[in-house]
User: Fold this.
Amino acid sequence: MPDGSKHYRVAIVGAGGIAGHRHMPAIRAQGDRIDVVAAVDVDGDRAAAFAAEWGIPDSYTDLDTMLAAARPDLAIICTPPVAHHAGVKACLEAGAWVWCEKPPVLSLAEYDALSALEHEDGPYVGYVFQHRFGSAARTLRRQIADGTLGRPLVGVCHTLWYRDHAYFEVPWRGKWETEGGGPTMGHGIHQMDLMLSLLGDWREVRALMGTLDRRVETEDVSLAAVQFESGALVSVVNSVLSPREESYLRFDFSDATVEVSHLYGYGNSNWKWTPRKGVAGDVAAGWLPADDVSSSHTVQLTDYIGSMDRGERPAASGADGRRSMELISGLYQSAITGRPVLRSELEPGNPFYDHLDGGGQYHPMTTETAEVAR
Assistant:
């Protein structure tokens, strides 16, 4: 079949909120290109209820059984982070392409093990990083590649969100072994991926983090200074302690500043291009996006399906998808060890390559230890 006319059998793995609120609407937006043939969840009642709600013919409690019976072309992984590695592995080995929710996995070691299962012509595993796919981000990415705005010099990447104590009562949240990390891993990863998709590889990170108010094993806030291979310097903050929530990115180039302020998704109206003094107004007006496509699961899934049509690696996979895991690993290593970390250090033999907390090296300050310190 020519591109654009292929039909794909899709399975949903994990029937929780993200599957129904984000993935099923994104699938429906693809029209008759996708048939959802199965839903899987360890909770059989939840799997059956999800299948009934969305008109899916079969539900399962065992992933391997589903893969053998339904033989999907694409599996969408919506399970908690601790189950990502095993789920993606099973799907790749069964010959299915995979689109996996963030965070990709719990360590660089797990990420690389899954990459080793991919083949030159697929199947591939891609990850949900929808913010890089909106029209404003695509426009800015082209401008950076073309040098339209000059050199990138200074940046801000802040994810300032609020999650109360009750949010962390879900058993797998707030634990290194099941969530992989705190807001750096589970929340700020979206903005960091957008930043990395624009600015490319980083060179060095210097970071701090703390567990200041939430009853968790991980951090509830982190901040870092990041130097990129281009020389650009960026401030990165990730928080779940911020009552006025905002996702804010700013990039200062030699000829312009570009900003976006949003929360969980953006349209063109959330972005602003500000030329430096001396840049002609008609030139600056030509910088704005020609179309208005919001960031969403829908736009990324459309892009992913296009990659399947062409039999090529999707965006936000392989080395491209690894960047966010690299930065998070380096940030945690720097904050926990108290020293700068180079990207080149994140390789086998480094304890932070295998475990984001370096194998139990993070010891958050409690009320009792704070009193002792004072």
